[in-house]
């Protein structure tokens, strides 16, 4: 019986060793081979368009709110400024590759200038300071556009020259050539039939265009101007985001 037990023991050990060997071989055969893939270069010609789109998405959202603010009464800007500040924070937190550092720098400078200018306007800061902020924000946005075009390898169209007005089409007014209102913004400014945001729009002051200021409302929140391309027609424009070549205080008050 001892002999039979020894044979069985040897046979059992052989089976166990054989089984263990089979498992190890299977594991080795099925172990996947890990391959190391190179990280795509975010500044390559293939990746750059998608990377710039991430930055420009926030810029476009900011521009939308800025355009809305340009047609919003001063008393209601308190609702829009927090949204602009939110987008600014998102832009500050956004990580960009080294090739987009300059683009982000110009973006943040533009956003900060717009927010600061709006806050100054809400606090009734003098018009000279506000107009300076508007001009500076416009310049920064233009530099941002140039840098974006450079990165994408596109050519920006040259700004359309402002047409020289026909002296015969401008009615005689008491205004001097220095009382000009210019729209430096990214969108056209509405000219309305009355100094009221709900009044019908009767014309626009296009981007980079200027017109003559004729007077102001009693609260100095609206300016009476000649409607471009409509001889003899006058309308009211909100000067919040316009550049004035004169102190608004020098304009006479005109009844609607």
Q: Kindly provide the radius of gyration, computed on alpha-carbon positions and rounded to a whole number of angstroms.
A: 34 Å
Number of strands: 7
The DSSP helix count reads: 5
**So what's the overall shape?**
elongated
Largest beta-sheet characterization: 7 strands, antiparallel
The whole-number mean of residue pLDDT values reads: 77
The proportion of residues in beta strands is 5-15%
Q: Tell me the structural class.
A: alpha+beta
Low-confidence stretches: 1-29, 160-177
Q: What is the domain tally?
A: 2
Helix coverage percent of residues? 40-55%
Distance between the termini: 124 Å
Strand order of the largest sheet: 3-2-6-5-4-1-7
Describe the SSE topology:
Blueprint: H1 2-30, H2 48-70, H3 77-93, H4 101-122, H5 127-152, E1 180-182, E2 189-192, E3 201-205, E4 210-216, E5 223-226, E6 234-237, E7 243-244
Task: Report on the architecture of this protein.
- With 256 residues, the chain is α+β, with helices and mostly antiparallel strands.
- It folds into 2 domains: 48-152; 171-250, SH3 type barrels.
- 46% of the residues lie in helices and 11% in strands.
- The protein is built from 5 helices and 7 strands, in the order αααααβββββββ.
- The chain has helices at residues 2-30, 48-70, 77-93, 101-122, 127-152; strands at residues 180-182, 189-192, 201-205, 210-216, 223-226, 234-237, 243-244.
- It has a 7-stranded antiparallel β-sheet with strand order 3-2-6-5-4-1-7.
- A hairpin with an 8-residue loop joins strand 2 (189-192) and strand 3 (201-205).
- Helix 2 packs antiparallel against helix 3, helix 2 (48-70) packs parallel to helix 4 (101-122) and helix 3 (77-93) runs antiparallel to helix 4.
- The chain is elongated.
- Mean pLDDT is 77; it is low at 1-29 and 160-177.
